[in-house]
Amino acid sequence: MKRLTIFLIVIFYLIVYSFGEKKQIKTRSHTSQLIVSGKEWHDTSGKRINAHGGGILFYKGVYYWYGEYKADSTYLNSKVTQWECYRTEARGISCYSSYNLVDWKFEGVVLESESKNEKSELSCSNVLERPKVIYNEKTKKIVMWLHVDSHDYTKASAGVAICDSPVGQFKYLGSIRPNGQMSRDMTIFKDDNGKAYQICSSENNSALYINELSDDYLKPSGRFTRNFINQFREAPAVFKHKGKYYIISSACSGWDPNQAKYAISDSMLGTWTMKGNPCTGKDADKTFLGQSTYVLQINGYKDGYIAMFDKWNKKDLINSRYIWLPVIFKGDSIEIPWIKQWNIKMVLR
Ligand code: GAL
To answer: In this predicted model, what pLDDT tens digit does every residue of 88-143 receive, in sequence order?
Structure first.
C-alpha cells in the first residue's frame, strides 16, 4: 500500500512537471501586455533594456536575454575612413530574465569589460558584439560566444566565455579566428542532437562560415563550410523548423538598414539555397529599418517562433530599439509580417 502511494505521488509530480513548463508561458502571457516594435522597452525596474545584438537562452524554465551593454555616449571613430564607424564604449554583456518574454528583469552585466587595461581583449575601447549563449549538457557549462574586435574592426575574432550559472559572472577564455579565418557578425546554433555551430561573416564579410564546434562548445571541431561567397551577408540568425534549417541575414551597410534575405538547407553543413526577403509590409525592403540578430523558438510550441531585430540608432547607439515579430511558416517558406503591436499568444501554436 505504502509503495503504491509513493508510486502515485511520483506519477502525480511527473505529470504536473511535464505540463508545467508549457503552462508557464501560457498563463503568464495571458496578460494584455503587447510587444511594440521600435518603442522603448523597459525592464521590470522601469529602466530601458540595454541588450543589443542579442540572443536568448532557455534554461530551467526561464528565458535569458543576453546582449551588448552599450555606454551612454556615441562617437564617430575618425580613424576608420571606409565607412561610418559610430562607436560606444563596450560596457560588457548584459543579461535579463523572463518567464513570459515580455517582462524582463535585469540580472546584471554578466561579462564585464575592462576600463583600466587597454591591452585586454575586453577593454571598453574594443568591440564586444552579438553575444549568443547555449547550454552544454555534457559539461553542464553555460557557454557564450561573441564578436570580439579591435576599435577599428581589424581583429575580426570570436571570443568564448563560460559560467556555471546563466546569470554570471562569466569567465572569459580568450578569442580566436575560427579555423584560422576572420569572424565578425556571428551567432551560435545548437541542434537537437547536441551539435553546435558558430556562424560568422568571414573573409572580410564576403563569405558566411558555418563552423561546427567541439563537443564542449569551446572551440571549432575543424569541420566548416563557406557559404554565400561574394554575397556579403552579415547579422546571421539561425533556426530549425520541421527538419529544415534557416538562416536570416542582412547585407553589409554598417548600422544602416538594408534588405534581409533568408536561406534554407537540409543540414547545417549542407548546401544552402538563398530564397529572398522574408519581410512583408511597411518598410519590408529595409527589414522594417532593423537588422536581424536572433530567432527564438518558444519552448514547447512547434510553430512558435519570434524573429528578433535591432533598430540601430547610429548616432545614439544606446538608444537603439528592438523589433520582435512572429515568423509565419508556409510550407518550407517563411514570412515575417510587420505588425505594429502584438501579443505573444499569437505564436503559441
Ligand atoms: C553592422 C553589424 C553590427 C555592427 C556595425 C558596426 O554591419 O551588423 O553588429 O558591427 O556593423 O558598424
So the answer is: 999 999 999 999 999 999 999 999 999 999 999 999 999 999 999 999 999 999 99
Region 30-41 average pLDDT? 83
- In the chain, domain spans: 44-347
SS3 274: strand
Instruction: Compute, in angstroms, the gap from residue 255 CA to the centroid of ligand 1.
Output: 6
* CB of 234 closer than 6 angstroms to any ligand 1 atom: yes
Which of the following CATH numbers is that of domain 44-347: 2.115.10.20, 1.10.1760.20, 3.40.250.10, 3.30.420.40? 2.115.10.20
Q: Is 194 left (phi over 0), alpha (psi -120 to 50) or beta?
A: left
Ligand 1 mean position, distance from CA 294 (Å): 15
Residues of 260-275 as b/e, b for ≥16 C-beta within 10 angstroms? bbbbbbeebbeebeee
Helix segments in the chain, DSSP class H:
2-28
Residue 114 burial (CB < 10 Å; 0-12/13-18/19+)?
middle
pLDDT at 349: 85
Ligand 1 within 6 A of CB of 291: yes
Q: How far is the centre of ligand 1, averaged over its atoms, from the C-alpha of 254 (Å)?
A: 5
297-324: per-residue pLDDT in tens?
Answer: 999 999 999 999 999 999 999 999 999 9
pLDDT-derived band at 11, boundaries 50, 70, 90: low
**CA 269 to CA 334: how far, in whole Å?**
21
- Is the CB–ligand 1 distance for residue 148 below 6 Å? no
User: Dihedrals φ, ψ of 156, to 5°?
Assistant: 45, 65
Q: Say how many Å lie between the CA of residue 34 and the centre of ligand 1.
A: 28
Q: Choose among 134, 105, 142: nearest CA to 28.
A: 105
Which residue, judged by its Cα, is nearest atom 11 of ligand 1?
254
